Queue: 3 jobs
Job 1
Amino acid sequence: MAEIRATRQERTDHERITDVRNLNAGDRILVGSRTKPIIVNDSGAREIHPLRGGPTQQHAVEASGRWSNAVTVLLVNRISFSTGDRLGEISVDMGAPEPVWRVTE
């Protein structure tokens, strides 16, 4: 697998992902300023209970690199805990939101 060297400017050629439900196992993605793509391994959801309205699902995927010492990261759709609305951002390892792109090759 060739390493992808992409700058933020070049990433306009890749599909921007704002909802992890659009990712499938085996998809190659770039996250934030990382230059090597990682592979989506698994997906799932958990039920959350916002302050207003009924329960809703928060979707997530796990992804990791295919090199030695690669770590697995959790990408989660950010949800408003007051309304349960999806915010259109993706958090990495439950931290700050980061941009995510699908890489085709």
Job 2
Amino acid sequence: MKDAWRIEQDRQSQELAEIVQQAIDAYGQRLKAEGKQPMLNAVASAIVTVTGAMLASVKDRRPRKLLRNAMERELPLAIARHEGCSGSAEVIIAGRRADA
């Protein structure tokens, strides 16, 4: 059985994930309405920036490293959970397009 803190962490994580996804979707729709192409590169860059700021807010390097390692361990699992669930997206690679 999960500890109460883990249940609450999972609940908050799911809620935040939904909020972030809704914001990304709304921004993409706004760009499309303006005749612009939403870029997955921009999403990735923004997530990296916010992640860096969040990790930097952990002043003690040891817990920061533990948190970063936990995030790195979870990323492949998150990719596997969502693979095939979304539509296609474009990634811009050094001046050319490639379907993601």
Job 3
Amino acid sequence: MSEQQAPTADLGLLELAELVLTESGYSVFYDTVDGEAVLLAENQDNIAAVAAPVAIDGLIDVHPSVSRLLSTRVAEAGPASKRWDTFAVLLCAQGAAREQTEALANITNNLRQVRRLVRVEVEPTKAALSRALRPLLPLPEPPHYGALREPLKELENLLRADGIEQDLITSVLTDFALGLGRDESSDDGSKEDDER
């Protein structure tokens, strides 16, 4: 009986990376490297191969194959590919041990053929993936200064965009508002009492 090997790709991180990149105008599709899923993303400026091993050792092992895949993809595109910046993106939810940091720094500092973005301790949230993929994303729109926005409504929108459940958001904001009311009312008379 053959033993099945557990997947070493973090499919949750790859799916969130797909969501963030798609929302930013990238065309995305999956390929495989060393038998594991890798996300390829292209727009008019960039091409990226995103790998998300579940362990740091897997990240260190897979990076040469991801870089080769990306280099091959760019070479196949011919002269038109010269307009692209190329990125090998290596994501991992696991933190790096002290003995792994030198290898990760060497990967990051290797600028041959493609740029390498190494991100460890990436939380599986849309916001965390947006931060990890920031070099690939278009610049955000500048704030509009016409009308002032209500800060609690803005916080609610950010939390909802980050995937937090609406019930939890409403509960926390309600508790905050009630707490704010108690603080304001205690400030009215307590200072006079303290001075006496």
